[in-house]
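The data are quoted verbatim for reference:
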Amino acid sequence: MRGQCQDSALAGGVMAVLEQGTPVQMIQLLQRPWEERFRVCLGLVRLLHYLSNSPLGSVALLDFQPRQFVMVSGELKLTDLDDANAGEPACQAHSDCLLCFPLRNFTALCSPHGVCEGLNEMRNLYNAYRYFFIYLLPHQTPAALKPLVDQIMNATGELKQSINKTLEVFEDILHVYKSGMYLRNMPISIIKDYAVLKGIGTAGNMEYKCWLSYSHQGCVLSVYNATEAALICNSHPQCTSFSVSGQKTWTGRLLASFRSGFSHLVPDVSSTVYVRRSKASAAVL
């Protein structure tokens, strides 16, 4: 629910404003690019951070499974609050603060105030790890981001850090990814191997498919800039050219289309085509 409006002219009249979402399908998410899977996990961590510091106190999601969430324009939204519990559980001893999962058990501390300090946060965070992170984060992680992702996986899998620290690491990953900092060691000269045609598009394309593409019809990947796209094209034996248009992902990164050939060039003010010089003759059919 986005909010509610109450008409003062109508006694007890309330109008609810709702968002329409689609159920979370884990199999479909696994087939999405890493950037989109990271977005889901980042949204979940931001939600858990809010629940740990909500106006109602710390809130635990007792039925924490993908079916409790929906996707709205690429963002993860919580749809079922029936099993949300506000406030930490009461306790008399540390043994009252046992958190049991199928493969692991954890224990929170019983505070002097008689509540299990941080138990709700621990429950939410470990459930995020076992239902979302373990499936969505590690696979196809950009190599330079792997140490940070490994840090998240190890820390949440062992509950070694708070939701505040977890969110901090997620935001660090987002910053590094958006800013292109992970490309510091990339050879800039690689782009010199390509002829650059600005304001030009291609027609009669010979497409090829690649893993985790944004398109099911060809190879469309997220890149920070044309140099990164050139690096990817060089790593694909069948790639002879790629183009970059004004299309961007949710992080502001560019979408690059890779192909093995095309029949002719056409005017397109929003597109720039990059053709590998060593394969320029093969690129045009």
Observations:
- The domain at 3-87+116-181 is CATH 1.10.510.10 (Transferase(Phosphotransferase); domain 1).
- The CA atoms of residues 203 and 264 lie 6 Å apart.
- The longest helix spans residues 34-52.
- DSSP finds seven helices and 17 strands in the chain.
